[in-house]
Design brief:
Blueprint (H helix, E strand, L loop, with lengths): L1 E5 L3 H12 L3 E5 L10 E2 L3 H4 L4 E4 L4 H9 L3 H4 L5 E4 L5 H14 L2 E4 L2 E2 L2 H5 L3 E7 L1 H14 E8 L2 H30 L5 H11 L4 H12 L8 H17 L5 H18 L7 H7 L3
Parallel strand pairs: 1-2, 1-4, 2-3, 4-5, 5-6, 8-9
Antiparallel strand pairs: 6-8, 7-8
Length: 283
């Protein structure tokens, strides 16, 4: 299949390379210069959008708006093109995007993913999709090339974005819980590694707890998912809750804590570095 790919960050480049490895023709574009070995780079986003299916993996609402909408890509796209939006964006903007594509006569599905860069490289992402079933069925082989399973959330694109935002919110809450527990145990003479082995072997087995507790115990905050992006997602969750008239108190507390950590200079580190922020804070 002829595939366009826009956004070659740590996640995007791994996804694009797996599409190429699966035998698809991939034309890729990024806003800044990248090492794109294994991919065919084009000089403009419009060139990448001239494909049967186009993936975008951009940082946030503003980036997607600037590249796709303000860049005029929908007006220039072929009418049979399907756009697969993999970015973690707000629910409101996902609805706006779906309407803009409908008016342009271009297919659109949301397909944000769960998984870190190493998971993306191994083509083991969990892909969360929302949109018209016919469009999802058409791109199913491509989704299978980047992930181990595709999870259908509903026939509107924003349903996938809602699920992604809520999932990231839960991860952030788990990280905050582990950060606080490690601080409490450490200050009372129990090594975090020893404590986490107890928790993983008894009450809290699971991928999130296993992966992130190891980072906290090792004090390894090399970024796979930067804290500033995690904070962005918590803000999206707050916005989504407000849109349906709800206030989520735990979300508010975790977002406030992460905001303080980002303001203190931890934004470029892995979002588990909130634990280090707590260690260094006087109170």
């Amino acid at each position: 299949m002829d595939v366009g790919f826009i956004g070659l960050g740590m996640m995007g480049i791994a996804m694009a390379r797996n599409l190429a490895k699966a035998g698809h023709t991939v034309r890729a574009w990024n806003r800044s210069k990248v090492d794109a070995a294994g991919l065919t780079l084009v000089t403009t986003a419009a060139e990448a959008f001239q494909a049967d299916v186009v993936f975008t993996m951009l940082a946030d609402d503003a980036a997607v708006r600037a590249v796709v909408l303000e860049g005029g890509l929908l007006k220039a796209a072929r009418k049979e093109t399907i756009h697969v939006g993999c970015s973690t964006i707000s629910v409101g903007f996902a609805e706006e995007l779906a309407e803009a594509h409908r008016q342009a006569g271009i297919g659109y599905i949301s397909a944000p993913v769960f998984g870190r860069p190493n998971v993306a490289e191994a083509a083991q992402l969990n892909v969360v999709v929302g949109g018209e079933k016919s469009a999802i069925d058409k791109v199913a082989p491509l989704l299978a090339a980047i992930g181990k399973k595709t999870w259908f959330m509903g026939e509107t694109a924003a349903q996938a974005n809602t699920a992604k935002i809520a999932g990231n919110m839960m991860i952030a809450m788990a990280i905050e819980a582990m950060a606080e527990a490690s601080l409490l145990t450490e200050r009372n003479g129990v090594a975090p590694k020893q404590f986490f082995e107890l928790m993983l072997g008894t009450l809290f087995a699971g991928r999130v707890y296993e992966g992130y507790s190891a980072q906290i115990a090792a004090e390894n905050y090399e970024p796979g998912f930067k804290m500033k992006l995690g904070l962005k997602d918590l803000r999206l969750a707050t916005e989504a809750a407000e849109q349906v008239g709800k206030k989520l108190p735990m979300l508010d507390a975790v977002r406030s804590q992460m905001d303080k950590a980002v303001q203190a200079g931890f934004g470029e580190l892995e979002w588990t570095a909130v634990a280090e922020f707590m260690r260094q804070r006087k109170r």
